[in-house]
Automatic annotation (TrEMBL):
Protein name according to UniProt: DNA polymerase IV
Active-site annotation: E100
Major site of localization recorded for this protein: cytoplasm
Cited function: Poorly processive, error-prone DNA polymerase involved in untargeted mutagenesis. Copies undamaged DNA at stalled replication forks, which arise in vivo from mismatched or misaligned primer ends. These misaligned primers can be extended by PolIV. Exhibits no 3'-5' exonuclease (proofreading) activity. May be involved in translesional synthesis, in conjunction with the beta clamp from PolIII.
Site positions for Substrate discrimination: F10
Name of encoding gene: dinB
Compartment annotation: Cytoplasm
Residues annotated as binding Mg(2+): D5, D99
Cofactor: binding comment: Binds 2 magnesium ions per subunit.
UniProt KW keywords: Cytoplasm, DNA damage, DNA repair, DNA replication, DNA-binding, DNA-directed DNA polymerase, Magnesium, Metal-binding, Mutator protein, Nucleotidyltransferase, Transferase
A Pfam family reported for this protein in Swiss-Prot or TrEMBL: IMS_C
Cofactor(s) this protein cannot do without: Mg(2+)
Length: 435
């Protein structure tokens, strides 16, 4: 089993595309008052900046960092390249998020699965990831199970390869904190600490009956096995489509309620069309709304019987939107219909699983929407060319003119309604297999 994890992914993409930030502290996340850090570059981590920390605290720890709101189109495109490489290597690839995946090496067509063979394979893979992504590094772990592969990829981050030889798994785990085990969060760890269990070795000494008494049935059996490095979870390449959903991200924060309603209606039409094409219908309608500060909300409503009607889906979606406070501006809207399970698989940013979401082509920039210049966003100036927003306020927007393929560029300021300055988006990638 191989686990690949791109290092400080969002921040690394920003450093790739913004040469003046290479080697400098970069923090990607919500830049507003309630924002949280999604990813900090390793240079920012030195100052104690961490994922999920409030941006306010991050600013106090590392005031000289570049604080950027995310550019999901760039992260998605880079992720697509990496997942493509993995799928070319093995048909069994299970993405966990945009920057992480398991690969089943038993199906990779290798002559054998010796430590030497898989090491050479992984080094070659890391080199190809770096080449395909324009310089991003990946940490890779290889082991006899998902659990061990994931532990291994985390062991010497960043830019590292760790292969755990068969038979050495338990020696590796024993000195580790119990929180290394998936499912052992702060609450479970605290419960164990109270009975004197800190390390995996101490956990290993607990009998299965005791473990079940301590942690409950399901949890107890699971941890008893994992403490012994027993994990036979397979790589699941194709998850059954449990929902149909459509979403769109917007370069300008939407504030006009009528506009949002018409976008939702348009998305509902697309969802209904895809449902009918697939002979599907669903009972639960969900909307997803990402606010200007990166808070992501989803709201659902369940019908008494399944529907594939555009009008019904749109009406429910608009009703759900009516209950949300969107006065601060909205940067993403989505509509989904599901029958069996939750649509949105939330992570820090509330990204839905990639393969289940169809991203809408860019909407015409609405003239009645306030134009915001989010720090980090791509822009183009009629005279100076492409660059990114370095900062804005008091009617002025400051742009650094550079791209991934230029040297660090100069900074210039403009009035924030300068007609020569426009948001820049790459052309939509062609829809290919598997994305
Ligand atoms: Mg990562």
């Amino acid at each position: 089993m191989l686990h690949l994890d791109l290092d400080a992914f969002f921040a690394a993409v920003e450093q790739r595309d913004k040469p003046s930030l290479r080697g400098k502290p970069v923090v990607v996340g919500g830049v507003g008052g309630r924002g949280v850090v999604s990813t900090a570059s390793y240079e920012a981590r030195v100052y104690g900046v961490r994922s999920a920390m409030s941006t306010r605290e991050a600013r106090s720890r590392c005031p000289h960092a570049a604080f950027l709101s995310g550019r999901f189109h760039a992260y998605r495109e880079t992720s697509r390249q990496v997942m493509g490489l993995l799928r070319a290597a093995s048909p069994l690839v299970e993405p966990l998020s945009l920057d992480e995946a398991f690969v089943d090496l038993a199906h990779a067509g290798l002559p054998d699965l010796s430590v030497e063979t898989v090491t050479a394979f992984a080094e070659d893979l890391r080199a190809r990831v770096m080449e395909a992504t324009g310089g991003l590094t990946a940490s890779v772990g290889i082991g006899t199970s998902k659990f061990i592969a994931k532990v291994a990829s985390d062991l010497r981050k960043p830019d590292a390869l760790v292969v755990v030889a068969p038979g050495t798994e338990r020696d590796l785990l024993r000195p580790m904190d119990v929180r290394v085990i998936p499912g052992v969060g702060p609450a479970t760890a605290e419960r164990m600490r109270r009975v004197g269990i800190h390390t995996v070795e101490q956990l290993e000494a607990v009998s299965e009956d005791e473990m079940v008494r301590l942690l409950g049935n399901a949890h107890g059996h699971w941890l008893y096995s994992l403490a012994r490095a027993e994990d036979d979870r397979p790589v699941v390449a194709e998850r059954e489509a449990k929902s149909v959903s459509v979403e769109g991200t917007y370069d300008t924060d939407l504030t006009d309620r009528k506009l949002m309603e018409s976008l939702l209606t348009r998305q509902a039409n697309e969802v209904a069309g895809r449902l009918r094409k697939g002979g599907l219908s669903g009972r639960t309608v969900t909307i997803k709304v990402r606010l200007h500060d990166f808070t992501t909300l989803s709201r659902s409503s369940t019908l008494p019987s399944p529907t594939d009607s555009a009008a019904t889906i749109a009406r429910l979606a608009r009703t759900l939107l009516a209950d949300l406070d969107t006065t601060g501006g909205v940067r993403l809207l989505g509509v989904g219909v599901s029958g069996l399970a939750d649509w949105v698989q939330e992570d820090l940013f509330g990204e839905a699983a990639e393969e289940e979401v169809e991203v809408l082509p860019e909407v015409e920039v609405p003239h009645h929407s306030r134009r915001t210049w989010a720090p980090g966003m791509d822009v183009e100036h009629a005279e100076h060319g492409r660059g990114w927003v370095w900062g804005s306020g008091r009617g002025v927007v400051t742009v650094r003119f550079e791209t991934a393929s230029t040297p660090p560029g100069p900074v210039r300021s403009f009035k924030d309604d300068d007609p020569d300055l426009t948001p820049w988006r790459p052309p939509e990638p062609e829809d290919e297999d598997g994305t």
